[in-house]
Amino acid sequence: MPLIQYLNKNADYIYSYGGGITNIIKKNIPNAEKKIIEIPAAIEKEWIFESNIKVNSPVRFAFLGRYDIRKGVKELSIALKNLAGKNSFEFHFIGPIPDEFKITSPQIKYHGTLGETEKIKNILHQTDVFVLPSHSEGMPNVILEAMGSGCAVLATDVGAVNVLVNDDNGWLIPPMDSKAIEEKMVEILDVDKKIIEQKKIASVQKVQKHFLWNEVIQLEIKNIEKVIFL
Fold it and tell me: pTM for this structure?
């Protein structure tokens, strides 16, 4: 957008979540690399749950969000239709998914909109792999909340998602690709559960080290001081 480009071009400094967001800024704003400040998103310490270590049998997946084409729910539903009845797993949808888009299968559960955070936490605390196949993103808080809850993450490599998710704590796939979702879920179901367990532990540790508000605030202060005392 012209206004955004104008503001960024004339700004002294530009904030970025990092990852793909930084690459987009560099591509569209001349000399942007000299004025980018990378500050990630953050969550409250209350999201940390270190007891979600053991992998369920069958493996439990979850999605949290609204029915929106940009969230990749269409591709996810296609993948789940192909997997249901052929593979052993559970999938939990949290959010307002319209009835006409729901899959009839005892393996797939729709919880609807959960207004209370504790109810969302209760499901995430029993989830092994959080799935977010978005077409585009910034740095999704929902991934951070799932990581803090002890979930490994299967997500699309968009925006700054790769700052949060890598081989240590999950799997990245291309966006808008139902086959990629299906194939990666099959791979996850076939892998040694100890690998999933290691990724679950890594998710919590990563949030504790880099993505709690106290840590991000300190990073912000350091960057402000660096700019002031240049």
Answer: 0.95
